[in-house]
Amino acid sequence: MTPRVTLAIAVRVLTQLRRDHRTLAMLLVLPCLLQALLWWIFQDTPLVFDRIGPALLAIFPFFVMFLVTSITTLRERSGGTLERLFTMPMGRLDFLVGYALAFGAVAAVQAALAAGVAVGLLDLDLRGPDALLVVVGVVDAVLGTALGLFVSAFARTEFQAVQFLPAVVVPQILLCGLIVPRERLPRVLESVADVLPLTWAVDAMEHLATTTRTGEVWRDVGIVVGFALAALALGAATLRRRTD
């Protein structure tokens, strides 16, 4: 991997995103709107929103980045752009890490906006430091980016890429503790939840909501980073230059 090439890929992706106003709106505005919608739904039961709000701050960046990245990467491959890029001195990790850096930068803005709306406007009760809240949001988004890059190798069309949502994302949302606390799940499902990356992302947010101690938060962040790096490595191993 060459840092200069990796940064060039990241700048290229950010330039494309800047010109794509719809995608930017989806990345930056949609998580805030969804938070506001749920606050409105639970306006008469604020304790419910305080319980699920931290989990949603972890889920929304993960969900949105997975969707956008998987479709964008497939579009690069099916349009022949990726094949042309590989005629230059660029490795697979250069491409994948460049994408991760670009979407990570967008994720920093996304996390700051979502946290500002949730804590500042919607009065979500969080005890941990706001800066760490943004860090967790960025890591969650990078995880979604890494998994999106990985699964895009197995799709031939954008419709197939979207089909990975119920296969990869929805089970993690169901088992992460948002609907039912993990300790109340059947033993087998609890064991499965413990090895899913979104579970640790949600745990990090929930620890921020319940305690001022940051040790457990950093542990969870480290685990999520490990999952993201593993997904990037798998993505580099399975990345195809074009869709046949």
TrEMBL record:
It is found in: Cell membrane. GO terms for cellular component: ATP-binding cassette (ABC) transporter complex. It comes from the Bacteria. Keywords: Antibiotic resistance, Cell membrane, Membrane, Transmembrane, Transmembrane helix, Transport. The chain crosses the membrane at residues 24-42, 54-74, 95-119, 131-154, 161-180, 221-239. It is a multi-pass membrane protein. InterPro entries: ABC-2_transporter_component, ABC2_TM, ABC2_TM_bact-type, ABC_2_transport. It holds the Pfam family ABC2_membrane. Its main location: membrane. The keyword Transmembrane helix applies. One of its GO terms (molecular function) is ABC-type transporter activity. One of its GO terms (biological process) is response to antibiotic. Residues 14-242 form the ABC transmembrane type-2 domain. Belongs to the ABC-2 integral membrane protein family. PANTHER family: MEMBRANE COMPONENT OF ABC TRANSPORTER YHHJ-RELATED (PTHR30294), TRANSPORT PERMEASE PROTEIN (PTHR30294:SF38). This is Transport permease protein. It comes from Nocardioides albidus.
